[in-house]
Amino acid sequence: MRVYLLCFIIIGLVYGQDDTFYFAKNPQDLSVVAGDEAELECAASVNAGLVYFWQQDGVTVENTTRKLQVGSNLLIRRADPNIDQGQYSCIATDATTAFSLTSRSALLNIHWLSNRSQVILQVPSKDEVITDGVDIVMRCDAEGSGELRFEWFRNAERLRKTDRYQFKANKFHLKGATPRDNGVYKCAATNEAGTVTSKDNFVLAIQGDRWSHILKEPQSVLVKKGSSALFDCVYEHADVIEWYFGEKGPLENSTSFSVLHNNSLLVHKADMHNEGLYGCVGIRGESPEIPVKYTAELEIAYLEDMTENNLEPVLPSGIGAVAEDGQIRVTCLPPRSLPPPSLYWKGPLSALPLPPSGPIRVDGTSLIIDAAKRRDAGNYTCVAENLSGSKEIGFRLVITSPPSLERGPTSVTVDEGETAVFYCQFKGMEPPITTVHWLKDNASFRQDSRLSIDQSTGTLTITNTQVSDKGDYSCLVNTTGYKPLVSKPASLHIKEKLKFSPRPVDKKLERGSVKKVYCKAQGSSQPLVKWLKIGDGDNTFDLPVHVQDINGTLHFNGVKWEDKGRYMCVASNPQGVINVTIEIDVVETPKFVVLPRNPTEAFEGYSIQMDCVAEGDPKPTIQWDKNSVMNDFDSKRFHVLENGSLVIDEVHFSDEGKYGCTAGNSGGLKRYEISLHVRSSEGYKPDGTIEGLESEGSMMTKTVTITLSAAAAYMVLVIGLMAWCRYRRHKRKQAYLEANPTSPVGEATGLSLLGKGDGNGIANQNGTLNGSEQKQKNGEVVRSDGENTAHSQGSNQSRRSKNGYDKLSFPRQDLHNMMLLGNGEFGEVYLAQARGIKEGADTVVMVKALQQMRDENALQEFKRQLDMFSRLDHSNISKLIGLCRDSEPHYMVLQYTDWGDLKQFLLATRKESKGSKPRPAPLTPSQTIALVHQLAMAMEHISNHRTVHRDLAARNCLISSDLSLKVSFSALCKDTYAKEYFKHRNQTIPLRWMPLEAVTEDDYSCKSDIYSFAATVWEIYTRGELPFSRLSDREVLESLQRGDLHWKHHKNMPEQLKVILDRCWNQNPRDRPTFSFVAVEIGDIKVSTPTEP
């Protein structure tokens, strides 16, 4: 019963998305500072036909100029903690089916800090009772979000904690105050929103007869630029009163300052350079106390210019458009200023401020016209005023008229590369009030330099047309305040020209290697592509036997010297004939033929020669480096011979290190590194011997002799065992043939690549193999010893003997309750219950059916996957359970898990739980990196077996309830995951997971798998998001070909992992790391990631 429930849950997870949609991007928790901009993002897996709206704390958000929906996202300008903080969710509704889905809610947290604070005396309650030696407690009153951090200042100097100065929260405790503590005390409060400094400060003035006592301290002033500023300062018991500007002083009368008779300071024509702290000091000549400075600040008022950004929304060209009887609301934002300005609006008919009520009114700083009339048109101005003066910004209000569409575009047919023009005749107001846009296939399209729209006539011009431009085009006429008008579509037909795609380029081939040179062409009909070799005099001749032309691809089966030369690719169809000539150069990468001993020993004061000789074509050049620094040698003692050997005259101890010999030519580079050890020359003889070491050499000779003898004996034993096994197998086969003389042998049907009648075994009429000598015993199948005999295999495992597949045989009748999971590349994929795997219980397995038995590509891919899983044995790779091939269709039976494929699991962790289906909890950081590490370990095992997966993605991985990951290969490319595949050159490929060389040249390797691995890791961190979801398949392909397809890391990825993924996505396959390297590095990240409690 549990197995039935499990299957239905898995199928529900897979099919639950087919008829609806899911959120590819959920809104995320966000923290911003009050006054800043916040944007909550939301996107569904399919955008066509969806309508979005947002809710805040369960209430629908209404669009305003400050808080509005942009596409599917919600934009909040100047976040206000009083009205914007809360829980937000995005609701997407299918306009056709009315199906609605609510996203995960996100918290918008707004950090704020009040713009005023003050210092209050807490103990004692009145400053009149403060005397010498009294303890004083001051409190800093400031409000803000989160935890506030406080700092205290006396006369602008920051106070530090001492025995007398104690700080706790927002309080400052001064123990035993003395006259030396007199001064102006201020505080500053800080949080994520910034810092605010107190304006209302506390003045400490302890009275006494032995020191000067301030009666009136100077007060901070704010003045207009160019005006005078006055600071008062009154002391008693002071013989002299001095003024200071910062550290400058005492001040004397000048053109800038005047000290008046009453000791007040007058600043003349105050400017920006006069801003700062001014201090007043009262000095009593016979007082033992140090004089104390009381400070005040001078600030100059200012008001910055206003720009179009001070109006919200921003009005292009300074024009505000609204339909007659429509509403318009424009908010005026204050410019930067000191002090804050007052704002008001002026209308076109009066210079007086507009009233707060009426048909045209002002609400706060917003201008509101509820029902615009034509008489309301004109210029409206926002004015900002403060002490420094006034600034203003305005816009022109236009009352719009409805547009009309006179004539739509007509269909156009052009040759590829020519210019296409669509006309749209309309009547409307001048731009930007009336604008013309164009739609392609009823959707907006990205414009580039080839496309231009004349707003005055509405004409769309497409230059240098491409095949991707074909489609249906409609013009859209939009006037502010009215419903857009859309014309009937007109078709653009492109006559595709005959061309190479991509154009072949010159190649350098390694001698002896197996290489492919591609030539692919496109046209209005499928071109015929053929290669020719060009000889002297531009004569062409047939290709040599070892070079094959297969559908326009040159296959070099062992490159030879004579393959060098010019080759012409010719493409033809009814449109004509084109050709391109390339130069193929045959090179031989450098090979070392003589190498120095590693390590090499040298003796101080003697010469040494380190041999390094390489061969290749062209002849390689030799370069030496020491400790990875090229040519860092003393030219007087170091010499490189013509054959590449390095000679060192009079070896020094400093010459010790690692020496690298690099041989290079146009075919590549080879490097060999040795270690040079320099020993003392004491006891060294020129004949190469060292006193006292003769016996050591004799012992070494004996050791080598014994080792070689043991190795030779071992080889003889191995060869003898192999000969005996071959003889034993031959005798058994001969005995079987004598016992079954009528059995058909070697009848090749040509219908299967799975060993059925391939001449390597014996097949009965049902297609099952008898070569394994199956026998019946007590109703069970018993295999003889012959079935377990190991057979030799080719290096690429492309030919498996019939007995090899027979070992995989699984009884078809043991599969029951088969339920369709989806359709793959060569047939249907099922979930089934299998008997006999676990004793006493059925096991859920995945069954891949080979239904296209006569499709050679399907047969090859089925066999490739079969060979791959049969060779692999790893805890993170699905095991091949068996093969059913007694009748058609053939079944490949693979291990499955209780939670199904990884893609559906990731989607389930990101969606809100609905209904009765169980939902897994979101992955923690340690669980996520553990999954990535398991994936890396599995792919390392696959690459170590020289196998390529070709379709690594979350959809082709499995996960179990204990969070164990297994690499599998369901490849449901026909229906369930059809959106994740792309039809390209008659092949269905997972485009978004593939590097360029795999897409354009069918070059699959471990380097292409490492690219797909990085994409799968990205899926894990984004909880199953589709890569580049905002781009179409065609746009992804074009970006990939241009080299500007860039992956963006998820914010939760560890930094070390981001670096690894960037290397995996490198455009050059050679620069991508190996799976072994990746597995080790991710293992280190996993160890360093703390485990959640």
Automatic annotation (TrEMBL):
Q: Where in the cell is it found?
A: Membrane
* Cited Gene3D superfamilies: Immunoglobulins (2.60.40.10), Phosphorylase Kinase, domain 1 (3.30.200.20), Transferase(Phosphotransferase) domain 1 (1.10.510.10)
Instruction: Look up and give the membrane topology term.
Output: Single-pass membrane protein
InterPro entries attached to this UniProt entry = Cell_Adh-Cytoskel_Orgn (IPR050958), Ig-like_dom (IPR007110), Ig-like_dom_sf (IPR036179), Ig-like_fold (IPR013783), Ig_I-set (IPR013098), Ig_sub (IPR003599), Ig_sub2 (IPR003598), Kinase-like_dom_sf (IPR011009)
TM spans (from-to) = 704-724
Point to the regions of Basic and acidic residues compositional bias.
774-788
Q: Which UniProt keywords apply?
A: Disulfide bond, Glycoprotein, Immunoglobulin domain, Membrane, Signal, Transmembrane, Transmembrane helix
Q: Which GO terms describe its cellular component?
A: axon; neuronal cell body; plasma membrane
List each copy of the Ig-like domain by range.
Answer: 19-102, 118-203, 316-394, 403-491, 502-585, 590-675
What is the top-level taxon of the source organism?
Eukaryota
Any one Gene Ontology MF annotation carried by this entry is:
ATP binding
Q: This protein is called what?
A: Inactive tyrosine-protein kinase 7
- Originating species: Laodelphax striatellus
